[in-house]
Design brief:
5 helices, 6-stranded antiparallel β-sheet, Papain-like_cys_pep_sf, globular, Permuted papain-like amidase enzyme, YaeF/YiiX, C92 family, two-stranded parallel ribbon, endopeptidase fold (from Nostoc punctiforme), alpha+beta
């Protein structure tokens, strides 16, 4: 039995961007973006995404907020937040990995080739390039939190639902308030 004392939050979203709509259309995935948070309020949420909201061609590792960037002007943000119970050691390892990404953020790029390869079930991996769900899974796997038995570059946001965990919120993330769990 695992003694858990911390939680890590996985946030899955379907935005209104062209890329999100294409992924949803071709793959039928309900969620097309993934992020990882270290607090229920989602103040410390990280992923790989657009550097600037209006430019889909320049992606990077970044701290995300639901009231900024591409999310700010979206009319709705369908999504799900689930909490994974982790040990103190797993939490610390995941946090340390994020700190390393922050310190070396200039080295990391968006894995465009991997994203499109993923859509066609083709592996394109680079240790310094990630797309959103590849990054989230990398952190969870390297921290000993989960193993989906597939290469990180073939993990889509939808696959992260297989990790399990406690559903904290399902619905329009524009209305998410950490004090109102399981709303909508």
């Amino acid at each position: 039995m695992m003694v858990s004392s911390r939680k890590i939050y996985v946030v899955l979203i379907r935005s209104t961007t062209v890329l999100s709509r294409l992924i949803h259309y071709f793959k039928g995935d309900e969620y097309t973006h993934a992020a990882l948070a270290f607090d229920k309020e989602l103040n410390y949420m990280f992923s790989f995404g657009r550097r600037r909201p209006g430019n889909p061609f320049v992606g990077c590792f970044k701290r995300e907020r639901l009231d900024e960037g591409v999310y700010k002007n979206a009319p709705t943000l369908p999504g799900v937040i689930f909490a994974i119970d982790v040990t103190t050691e797993q939490y610390a390892r995941a946090f340390d990995l994020i700190v390393n990404f922050l310190l070396d953020s200039h080295m990391y790029k968006y894995n465009y080739l991997g994203l499109f390869g993923n859509l066609f079930h083709r592996n394109f991996r680079n240790d310094y390039s990630f797309f959103c769900s590849e990054f989230v899974y990398h952190i969870l796997f390297e921290s000993g939190i989960c193993d989906l038995k597939r290469p990180r570059e073939l993990v889509r946001p939808q696959n992260l639902l297989n990790i399990g965990g406690e559903i904290v919120y399902v619905g329009d993330l524009k209305h998410y308030n950490s004090k109102n769990e399981k709303a909508a």
